[in-house]
Design goal:
Number of strands of chain B: 0
Shape of chain A: globular
Distance between the termini of chain B: 16 Å
CATH class of the largest domain in chain A: Alpha Beta
Helix content of chain A: 40-55%
Distance between the termini of chain A: 26 Å
Largest interface: A-B, 65 and 64 residues
Largest sheet of chain B: none
Radius of gyration of chain A: 19 Å
Structural class of chain B: mainly alpha
CATH topology of the largest domain in chain B: Fumarate Reductase Iron-sulfur Protein, Chain B, domain 2
Largest sheet of chain A: 4 strands, parallel
CATH class of the largest domain in chain B: Mainly Alpha
Number of helices of chain B: 12
Structural class of chain A: alpha/beta
Number of domains of chain B: 2
CATH superfamily of the largest domain in chain B: Alpha-helical ferredoxin
Strand content of chain A: 5-15%
Order of helices and strands of chain A: EHEHEHHEHHEHEHHEHHEHH
CATH architecture of the largest domain in chain B: Orthogonal Bundle
Oligomer: heterodimer
Strand content of chain B: under 5%
Strand order of the largest sheet of chain A: 2-1-3-4
Order of helices and strands of chain B: HHHHHHHHHHHH
Number of domains of chain A: 2
Helix content of chain B: 55-70%
Radius of gyration of chain B: 20 Å
Chain lengths: ~300, ~210
């Protein structure tokens, strides 16, 4: 596979000791296997996610993302920006588009950036890692590199909200995107293309501020996976992963359910299918162990 | 009543729609709503909105300024973008709801103890300190948002989860002392201050 190089925006939750450090580690492993070189944007900052809006109004928020794009344009010249976090990708891409559409806002963002000695060109494409996998590399090429097919594992592909809307992957439907199911099949596992909760909201940041309302939705996401006989749920989104995995005890307590289903990342599936160890695939980062994946990784 | 709120009432007397168009993010789209209700039916937290988006749009046009801005409806938005992709008129509904929430907060009209408004503020302040979110402190501030007593109770309720996250190396006690951040904190803060000034200057009449 030809070597590919991108400017990498990992985001706050993908740092060491943060809630999706297992995403970061498995993405590193996956990229080694796929011959992708990720050059971290030097001194990148938080995008303020989709919850910063109450205190950070429009221009300050756009400027936060503009700083990351400007840093990338200065230090990782000519490289497309790739984010692994849905919120990071969305905020950055949204900022890039809005600053393209609005000249006066673009000028003001640059006036603010000058305070930090930076200048935005805003000519850099902003991609999600899922786009790199689906569009740049292609599902067929992913299939060719599989060394240990994930045979006998049935996986509910949970795309979630922000990886899918409002931008999503070109050519996919907002209501029923298929690329995650195709990827699950490509690594040798069984997909559930009709999984009803594929694009259901998990509550996002409101899982923290409105836990009861959010956990009611998370319950539906897990229930539908069980109804389809899934062994585990796989997702591209760090907040989806955390929300659906870590509150299962609290949901069991409230609703008298017995949920105990692993929630993994697509990058962990690829890492294991490409023959890497459970540790390289960051399976030790699961609160609910993905036993079936660990078994294949240990073979 | 805040000074800004008084000034805005004076300036836009009888035209709440113009006020929204001038001051709310993507507010110029509000008049395009054709009242089909797809947004309200598509919202995952729809049943929790006192006034779903479609209703909010009509209330803005009907001049129901106080009812809209003091409502906790727009704080129910989870940013799932379902409404945006389904709206037949392509209104950026998610952004308008965020914009209304931001504007209401600027005017001091947010309902007291609205949990998402509080969390959003904690999140922003946490992130602005070092340019990156400190998840450990974010969690702790959220537990203690209603004071020390409820904070201890909330922290104990989530103790097992915290221990599991630490064991999985997805939470680090060391974050309490320092933690991740950008190198150029002062540059970043100056930049945001400037952006805020430029934005405030857009609300020209108020000074």
């Amino acid at each position: 596979m030809a070597k590919r190089e991108y400017s990498y925006y990992p985001g706050c939750s993908s740092q060491k000791g943060a809630s999706s450090s297992n995403l970061m580690k498995s993405v590193d492993t996956m990229c080694q296997e796929l011959d992708i070189q990720l050059n971290e944007i030097p001194d990148w900052n938080c995008c303020s996610a989709s919850i910063g809006y109450a205190s950070g109004s429009e221009l300050p928020r756009l400027t936060l993302s503009a700083r990351n794009i400007a840093l990338s344009e200065e230090h990782n010249k000519g490289q497309e920006i790739v984010a692994t976090c849905a919120a990071c990708w969305l905020a950055t891409k949204e900022a890039a588009e809005r600053l393209k559409d609005d000249e006066s806002m673009f000028a003001e963002a640059n006036t603010a950036l000058a305070e930090a000695g930076l200048k935005l060109q805003n000519t850099t494409p902003i991609k999600h890692m899922a786009e790199v996998i689906v569009e740049d590399i292609g599902i067929d090429s992913i299939r060719e590199g599989v060394k240990k097919p994930l045979e006998g594992i049935k996986i509910a592909g949970y795309v979630g909200c922000q990886t899918n809307r409002p931008f999503g992957i070109a050519g996919e439907s907002f209501e029923n995107p298929m690329y995650l199911d195709n990827l699950i099949e490509a690594v040798g596992a069984d997909s559930i293309p009709t999984y009803e909760k594929k694009v259901q909201c998990c509550g996002g940041a409101l899982a923290f501020s409105e836990p009861e309302k959010s956990q009611e939705m998370i319950k539906g996401i897990i229930e539908a996976a069980y109804d389809n006989d899934a062994d585990m749920i796989a997702t591209p989104c760090p907040l989806c992963q955390a929300n659906v995995e870590i509150y299962q005890d609290q949901i069991n307590e409230k609703y008298n359910t017995k949920f105990n289903i692993p929630v993994v990342y697509y990058s962990q599936l690829i890492s294991v299918a490409y023959g890497r160890s459970a540790s390289d695939a960051a399976l030790d980062g699961q609160l609910i162990k993905a036993k079936k994946l660990e078994d294949i990784a240990g073979k | 009543m805040s000074e800004l709120n008084k000034a805005m009432i004076e300036q836009y007397r009888n035209s709440f729609l113009s006020e929204v168009e001038a001051n709310v993010e993507e507010g110029e789209w509000v008049k395009m709503c054709m009242q089909c209700g797809v947004c309200s039916g598509s919202c995952p937290l729809g049943k929790h909105w006192a006034h779903p988006p479609q209703e909010i749009f009509m209330m803005i046009r009907a001049g129901k300024r106080e009812e809209v801005l003091t409502s906790d409806s727009m704080w129910m938005c989870t940013s799932c973008y379902n409404c945006i992709v389904r709206c037949p008129r392509q209104l950026p509904i998610t952004h308008i709801m965020h914009g209304l929430a931001t504007y209401a907060k600027k005017l001091g009209l947010t309902p007291k103890n609205q949990p998402t408004a509080k969390f959003a503020e904690i999140f922003w302040n946490n992130m602005m300190k070092k340019g990156r979110v400190n998840e450990l402190k974010l969690g702790l501030s959220l537990y203690f948002k209603d004071g020390f007593g409820p904070g201890i109770k909330e922290a104990l309720r989530n103790k097992d989860l915290g221990m599991k996250m630490m064991k999985a190396k997805r939470m680090a006690a060391s974050e309490f002392f320092g933690g991740h951040g950008v190198k150029d904190v002062s540059g970043l803060q100056k930049m945001i201050k400037k952006a805020q000034e430029l934005e405030d200057a857009r609300m020209k009449k108020f000074d």
